[in-house]
């Protein structure tokens, strides 16, 4: 196994890691947005019922 092949593999795994991190961040963002929306809707409904 020569050096260039192993460095190519390293680059490839770095790309995949970055890709996975971006997906993870996107999923976290979506979950956060959903949480905020649920809280907002809940607050509005609560306010409508009890105002």
Protein architecture, described:
The chain has one helix spanning 3-50. The chain has one domain (1-51). 94% of the residues lie in helices and 0% in strands. It is mainly alpha-helical. Keywords: Membrane, Transmembrane, Transmembrane helix.
Topology:
Elements: H1 3-50
Properties at a glance:
rod-shaped, mainly alpha, 51 residues, 0% strand
Mean pLDDT over the residues: 92
Largest β sheet strand count, sense and barrel closure? none
Number of helices: 1
Euclidean distance between termini CA atoms:
73 Å
In terms of DSSP E residues, the strand content is under 5%
**Structural class assignment:** mainly alpha
Helix content: over 70%
How many discrete structural domains? 1
H/E series: H
The dominant shape is rod-shaped
Count of β-strands? 0
Q: Which spans of ≥5 residues are poorly predicted at pLDDT below 50?
A: none
Give the C-alpha Rg.
Answer: 22 Å
Keywords: Membrane, Transmembrane, Transmembrane helix
Transmembrane segments: 23-47
Sum this structure up briefly.
The chain is built from one helix and no strands. The protein is mostly helical and 51 residues long. It has one domain.
């Amino acid at each position: 196994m020569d050096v260039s092949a192993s460095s190519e593999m390293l680059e490839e795994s770095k790309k995949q890691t970055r890709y996975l991190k971006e997906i993870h961040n996107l999923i976290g963002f979506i979950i956060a947005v959903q949480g905020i929306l649920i809280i907002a809707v809940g607050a509005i409904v609560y306010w409508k019922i009890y105002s």
